[in-house]
């Protein structure tokens, strides 16, 4: 089983390009007004609407710190908080914003026993 999180967008083409070009997501399904992307087992979609859903955080989990640093580099000027360790959650993370202001997090769990796959 799997699931998909959908977000309303007013700029589907720019948003999809952002996730494909900067984070390496791939298009899984293209529909008349929706695009479903995949990042590993994470499925998320953007549907053209008259309003933007910009609440919540889209979190992309990486295997190590170097991969988070590389993602931060690719995100470039979209980064709002550069990579840092978060002791509360025992993670290494950075934050960015997509073209419509959604919060994007790139992180790695530092506790080797955490397995979310």
TrEMBL record:
InterPro entries the UniProt entry points to: Glyas_Bleomycin-R_OHBP_Dase
Keywords from the named record: Dioxygenase, Oxidoreductase
Keyword Oxidoreductase applies: yes
Gene3D superfamilies according to UniProt: 2,3-Dihydroxybiphenyl 1,2-Dioxygenase, domain 1
GO molecular function: dioxygenase activity
Stated name of the protein: Glyoxalase/bleomycin resistance/dioxygenase family protein
């Amino acid at each position: 089983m799997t699931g998909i999180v959908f977000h309303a967008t007013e700029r589907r083409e720019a948003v999809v390009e952002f996730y494909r070009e900067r984070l390496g997501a791939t298009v899984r399904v293209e529909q008349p007004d929706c695009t479903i992307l995949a990042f590993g087992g994470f499925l998320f979609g953007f549907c053209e609407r008259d309003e933007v859903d910009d609440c919540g955080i889209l979190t992309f989990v990486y295997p190590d710190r170097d991969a988070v640093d590389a993602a931060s580099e690719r995100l470039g000027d979209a980064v709002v908080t550069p990579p840092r360790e978060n002791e509360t959650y025992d993670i290494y993370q950075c934050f960015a914003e997509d073209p419509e202001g959604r919060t994007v997090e790139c992180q790695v769990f530092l506790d080797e026993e955490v397995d979310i796959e």
